[in-house]
Specification:
Chain A: It is found in: Cell membrane. The complex is a heterodimer of chains A (about 325) and B (about 280). Chain A is mainly alpha-helical and about 325 residues long. Chain A contains 13 helices and no strands. Chain A has two domains: about 45 residues, no CATH class; about 240 residues, MetI-like fold. Chain B is mainly alpha-helical and about 280 residues long. Classes of the chains: A mainly alpha (about 325), B mainly alpha (about 280). Chains A and B meet through helix 1, helix 3, helix 4, helix 5 and helix 6 of A and helix 1, helix 4, helix 5, helix 6 and helix 7 of B.
Chain lengths: ~325, ~280
């Protein structure tokens, strides 16, 4: 268990015995040769394909790719499209709520589990269980629970609350919130695991000292423990934010973007425009916007990770 | 005073315990309900108040096997996940070995850049991959899907195996080198046996991630190579009103995960948090 953010342990040096023979020099090159195919696949391939997407987003491509440059037209059409704006707004609502609620529930569960509860291991596994399921199945299960005529609403009415309403799934104003519910159900246990690991890494002696000074439990948590979890917050936010931007299958299975396109997310929009509607250029433009969104989160993260590494040396 | 404080703490622990179990029930309920419903008749499935005690039936399962190509989807899922995980291991183990035992100043950066590709949205590379697959006639083939799943999981596999390899004391490797072991022997006779658990965990993580993958399977396959997630997605729309049957189909699709997931939750978390939680 560690409280440091991922990827930041100091680089361990391996001592090497230097014998300058030809075979040894060759052997020294082997590691680099072995890593290179993976590097090639992971970095060159994927980043290369992204550049290809960028090129397509400036082209006249529709059903088939065509490489005639048309400047920013696809982007203008994209941002002139009401459906895209709905998808972006939805991503904003969904992303913020998803991250905030997951952090709150995750932290709360971690603190509760940290109170030396019996069967902690079992509870932890239960909390984490949804994460092992595919988003498609999560969406399917929740689609049923949230369906007004068979799920929670009907159950509420059956209990005697005649006016009980919980029809978010079929309401175009509220359908995006059902995606939040299902996504939070799936991911908050995972955030709990991150925080629990962080809590276990907090230095006990500081807490004891504060308690001797008469600090209450709540003060200890709000003043000492939670601030010291800052790196955990940081990595949890990164993880959750990129899950939010990538979201595709959950919304597709739960609402299908509907009713109408009220719960569309950018990834669904991109898929629809590129393939179903034969607007590859606009689809590529929307993909580029999403990529830039993730880059905006990722680059500060990578930068901070690499800086931590230098500080460690 | 001391006793008072003690009973006060006991109350708090009790409260925490109650909340924890309530949350656990809430979280587990949807899964439990799905499995339960899959053994009901369609009428029992939507009857109110909800039935907890009923006569279980296997009709839904029977119908799925009779009326759909369930076995083909399931077989596709097995072939593609196992194939991509094995392929991934073959590429990831040497790479992780080189990075863990021959670190250079750039190793950390290389790893981070590799991991960063895992965080990028797949839509960013969807069109090029689609076009490439079309030209190479890999669309709707298990081979194509296997390659994509492998690519998708490779960064996380390298990272995970790397963290396990780093737990091996370098002195042991030095000793084996002194004894005249070459690189191949070193990997096969020292490194792999010492990190058996870690390698198994990495393999399992790749397996679960591939099994759950829906984005690529929905976009790159139609009917021949579609996996179970695509099956559920397609089943859920036209048959949306047959809740019991849909539950049975979903249960079948997650059954392996429900079993393996329970056994490997710790490793899964370690992989998904990029090693932050051990």
């Amino acid at each position: 268990m560690t409280q440091s953010p991922p990827l930041s342990e100091p680089t361990r040096a391996v001592r090497k015995v230097h014998k300058p023979s030809l075979g040894d020099r060759l052997a020294e090159q082997i590691p680099r040769l072995v890593v290179s195919p993976t590097m090639l696949i992971a970095v060159v391939f994927i980043y290369g394909f992204m550049i290809w997407t960028v090129v397509l987003s400036f082209s006249t491509s529709r059903i088939l790719p065509r490489y005639e440059f048309i400047g920013w037209q696809n982007y203008q059409r994209l941002f002139g499209n009401e459906r895209w704006m709905v998808a972006l707004t939805n991503l904003g609502i969904y992303g913020v709520l998803f991250v905030v609620i997951c952090l709150a529930i995750g932290l709360l569960l971690a603190i509760l589990l940290d109170q030396k509860i019996r069967a902690e291991g079992f509870l932890r596994t239960v909390y984490l269980y949804p994460m092992a399921l595919s988003f498609i199945v999560t969406g399917t299960v929740w689609k049923w629970l949230l369906n007004p005529s068979v799920g929670i609403q009907r159950f509420g009415r059956e209990l005697g609350f005649e006016n009980f309403r919980f029809d978010w799934l079929v309401s175009s104003d509220m359908s995006i919130y059902t995606v939040v519910i299902a996504a939070v159900w799936q991911s908050s246990g995972f955030v709990m695991a991150l925080f629990l690991a962080g809590l276990r890494g907090v230095d006990d002696s500081i807490i004891k000292a504060a308690q001797i000074d008469g600090a209450s439990r709540i003060t200890v948590y709000t003043r000492i423990i939670i601030p010291s979890l800052r790196p955990v917050f940081f990595s949890a936010i990164i993880m959750l934010a990129h899950i939010a931007i990538k979201s595709f299958d959950l919304a597709l299975a739960l609402t299908g973007g509907g009713p109408g396109y009220s719960s569309d997310l950018p990834a669904i929009f991109m898929y629809q425009f590129s393939f179903t509607r034969g607007q590859m250029g606009v689809g590529a433009a929307s993909a580029v916007i999403m990529l830039m969104g993730v880059m905006a989160i990722l680059i500060p993260y990578l930068y901070s990770e690499l800086r931590v590494k230098k500080d460690d040396r | 005073m001391l006793l008072n404080l003690h009973s006060h703490n006991l109350m708090k622990t009790l409260l925490a315990t109650v909340i924890c179990w309530t949350v656990a029930l809430l979280i587990f309920f949807p899964i439990f309900w799905m499995v339960l419903t899959s053994f009901k008749t369609e009428i029992a499935a939507i009857s109110m108040p909800p039935q907890f005690i009923f006569e279980p039936t296997l009709d839904n399962y029977r119908r799925i096997f009779e009326r759909t190509n369930y076995t083909r989807y399931a077989w596709n899922s097995v072939v593609v996940s196992v194939g991509s995980s094995i392929l991934g291991m073959i590429i990831a183990v040497p790479a992780a070995y080189a990075m863990a035992f021959y670190p250079s100043p750039r190793t950390k950066g290389t790893l981070l850049w590799m991991l960063s590709t895992k965080m990028l949205p797949p839509v960013g590379v969807l069109i090029p991959i689609y076009l490439l697959f079309r030209d190479l006639s890999l669309l709707d083939t298990r081979l194509g899907l296997t390659m994509i799943f492998m690519l998708m999981n490779l960064p996380i596999m390298v990272w995970m195996i790397y963290t396990y390899f780093r737990e091996i004391p370098p002195e042991i490797l030095e000793a084996s080198r002194m004894d005249g072991a070459n690189t191949r022997e070193e990997i096969l006779k020292v490194v792999v046996p010492m990190s058996k658990g870690g390698l198994a965990a990495s393999f399992l993580l790749a397996l679960i991630l591939s099994w759950n993958e829906a984005f690529w399977s929905l976009n790159l396959t139609a009917s021949r190579a579609a996996t179970l997630t695509a099956f559920i997605a397609s089943y859920s729309n036209p048959e949306g009103l047959f809740w019991a049957r849909l539950s049975a189909a979903s249960t079948l699709a997650v059954a392996p995960i429900l079993i393996f997931g329970w056994l490997s939750m710790k490793q899964l978390v370690r992989g998904l948090t990029f090693g932050a939680v051990k």
